[in-house]
Design brief:
The complex is a heterotrimer of chains A (326), B (331) and C (379). Chain A is mainly α and 326 residues long. Helix content of chain A is 76%, strand content 0%. Chain A contains 13 helices and no strands. In chain A, 41% of the residues are buried. Chain B contains ten helices and two strands, in the order ββαααααααααα. The relative contact order of chain B is 0.13. In chain B, strand 1 and strand 2 form a beta hairpin. Helices cover 34% and strands 19% of the residues of chain C. Chain C has 14 helices and twelve strands. In chain C, the strands form two sheets. Chain C has an eight-stranded mixed sheet with strand order 6-7-8-3-9-10-12-11, with helices on both faces. In chain C, strands 2-1-4-5 form a four-stranded antiparallel sheet, with helices on one face. In chain C, helix 4 runs parallel beside helix 7. The chains are: A mainly alpha (326), B mainly alpha (331), C alpha/beta (379). Chains in contact: A-B, A-C, B-C. At the A-B interface, helix 1, helix 6, helix 7, helix 8 and helix 11 of A face helix 4, helix 5, helix 8, helix 9 and helix 10 of B.
Amino acid sequence: MLSFIVRRLLIAVPVVVASSVLVFILVANSGDPLADLKGRQPPVPQQVIEAREKLIGLDKPLPQRYWNWLTNFLQGDMGVTIRGQEVQPLLWQRMQITLRMVVLASIVAIVLAIGAGVLSAVKQYTVTDYTFTFAGFLFLSMPVFWLAALLKEYGAIRLNKVFGQQVIYTVGPESPNLAGSFGHRLADYAGHLVLPTIALAMISFAAWSRYQRATMLDVLGSDYIRLARAKGLSRSRVMVRHALRNALIPLVTVVAIDTAAIFGGAVVTERVFAWQGMGSLLVQGVETNDPNLLLAWLMVTSVLVVLFNLIADVLYAVLDPRIRYG
Amino acid sequence: MADTRVPPPGAGADEAGDGQELRRTEHGVQVHEVASTTTEREFTVEARTQRQLIMRRFLSHKLAVGSLVVFLLVVVASLIGGRLWKYGYADITDEFSSPPSLEHPMGTDSIGHDSMAQILRGAQKSVQVALMVALLATTFGTLIGALAGYYRGWTDSALMRFTDLVLTIPAIALLAVLAANVAEKAGNWFFIGLVLAALQWTYIARVVRGQFLSLREKEFVEAARALGASDARIMFRHLLPNATGSIIVNATITVAVAILLETALSYIGLGIRPPDTSLGLLVSTGQQAATTRPWLFWFPGIFIIVIALTVNFIGDGLRDAFDPTQTRVRA
Amino acid sequence: MATNTLPEQPAAETGSHAVLEVKDLTVEFPTDDGVVHAVRGVSFSLEPGQVLGIVGESGSGKSVTSLAIMGLLPRSARIHGEVNFQGRNLLRLPDKEQAKVRGKQIAMIFQDPMTSLNPVYSVGWQLQEAILAHQDIGKDKAWARAVELLDLVGIPNAADRAKNYPHEFSGGMRQRAVIAMAMTNDPDVIIADEPTTALDVTVQAQVLDTLERVQENTSAGIVLITHDLGVVAGMADRVLVMYAGKPVEIGDTDSIYYDPRMPYTLGLLGSLPRLDAKGAEQLTPIRGAPPSLINLPPGCPFSPRCPMSRPNCDSDEPALRPVAGVDHVAACHYAEELAGDVAAAEVFETAEADVQALEELDHLGTLDQAEAEQAEERA
């Protein structure tokens, strides 16, 4: 088992490295950080432009720029943004905010997907099944930004009316100048998290629950389930210990593959709820053609995705003895 | 009920119902030839070609057929409707911020644009992008997947590692960076479609690769090879037709995903930009007025949902049509 | 519907009570295309220590019969009749009660050992689970018993192997593990549904050997379901031949093999190549295919494929009736004609090589030349 983990880690490294190359090439070619400088009227003298280029390092060949950037990055130096902010602490802070949403939404989506998928499969072709399936299709076809906007514009007000006070917040990850006991702060975070998490979770849940249903049906029809029942085990034991245990395995892979997509969804959702997280950082980076910021952003996200995939791989090996020594 | 008495040998010996020849064996058993036609009692259904079977199965899936109709309507409306409708999407009318009426079935926005015209235009863009993405991604993805699945070994590893790589980066981020690339190109639906396709092909490539991997082991491939068929011929004439089902199903999924991605991109302002419009953009501007002028928020959203939903249902129907052994909900 | 008369127990065996008695079992499945009559009136009884072989083609209803006895059919199935075990009709019991009988007093072995075991739990764990489900003993004791059982069925290094996962076992070993699982609670009846079909011949022999040993140990009655007549000949005391959802012949093994009285049985036996055939033997494949169980026409279901069929065969379905002594029953109007050593080749058409084609090829010289000429023709 340990060798399995080590092997997976070793494979992950070249992936991340290759990712860094791809990302670098991408960002280096996508937009000119000096665009506004070059486009100014009256035209800026060439020497100034060249001087700037030298400052940023654009005068060096691509591979060298890559190497410089990589070595710096690995030491934790992610450079500065166009406006002069330190990228690393900025990214770190924003990441924590976004991860709050992403992790919570993933957990919620997983739990809901398992529940809905299993119920749908067990009660195949009943009203429950049709309802879940239709809900799945609906949310699958719904753009996350629209759902988020819907929840924000309509849900928040109504819910707050029900509680009689503002419990659900729609702007930002926490109230400004938040202070007080841990419990108070937690409640504040929660209030801000509710709507974005629901929006993000629903979309993932839709896709995963359909997959889970299909997997569960597959498992329920298999020979070993029949044998388990032939042994005289109770229905519930067969369902949980045998069927569910096997049906959860493929879901791990699916969730891992979708990690990148969830980040994408988070970017959009943050926009709706005006969170100052990774999402707004990305937009800022793109709009200002900020190479350091974009590079750092893409790399960090990439590493996170690879990390989640790694965790998923290990989890898979824990659940499925067949691949443990593969 | 059954008559268990045996008629004595000899009685009625020369009659067999079909007028067949009777003879007696050495032990005196009366037998006749068994005509092969009489044994095919079970074939009460006429044989149909593969394509016909698939069509029949798809057509029996009412939800999918209904969705197909609605989707086609939307496509036609978006492509042609814009020209037929009295207002253009950029026209500014006198009434602004007016709720739906006979004059403006979907209301107008704060500047005086007719919402219906805008939505039709936005739908047109979305559909254009989505169909283009599906076409490009499917073609390219199929090619890559076929090569990887057929040749295996290094080709496969290299290609698959590459697709893995592309998948580690969130679509939105990649799109944002790519689409905002060159100022003039940004906002051009063709460019956006190109960029989206550049991401989507990976999913189809994986699917096709999987199919080719399992299909190439089948005997008919060995037989073809024994007959001297070239690699290309095997891939195109033998393997590809068998993978068509998966390819088509995934192509429809690609359409749905492309629509959602394009609208999301437009929503955050990095996709199709003014003066052109997209359903995502409409939602973005309409969101601020959601409570006061709901029509600006709901109509574009519902359009997106309808398009994506119908495509998803069609995809589901296609999946069932190509593989009836799949369990499905008969909605 | 024709009712079947149960063969009376031969005088020598009365005194022992049948451990399992199936009466008029009928199973129907409603489907989109119509109602499938999978089982249309099966009756048999099983004595302790006896091996009953149920033989038939795919689709004859033999597996569905066994699943019905175990209560493992899907909820959409409509089941009628009686399955009497220890004085109770199992079909009338609620699922919970059936579960108490399953795995404890009536155990089942399935066809495909590769998929019968849950891949995520160790073999020992699955055996332990079977034990703990019906016996109130500690986990350690249950594990020890599991290892014991694995040893009994011939798994080497049972103590170590018990910790292995199913994918680490070979096909034959897996099947033996499944047999061990069936034995755990000392069942009175073991139903083996095609236990050797998915295995190589040499492994088959081992598995059957194991089954025999199990029987000696537990004196359970075994229902051995298979389409392989060779397997049945080696192990069964009595044979039940099924066709189109109904038994068409029941009798002692010797009686069936040497004195078949139903044309289908005769044809089946004739289609087997035999090592003890005298001289050149010709096989008798039975032409055609089994009928659809949805639109079953009246009369004997075998009639369209039967060289002996007469007009009344298409209108009256024959019932099982004694044909050679009281233990041997067959469902054929003309069973008497088959008395006295009738060879299958007499009644059925024999398979012949396409002599004409072979002669033509010979005429062309070598086979290679023929290929070359054929290729030229095509070009």
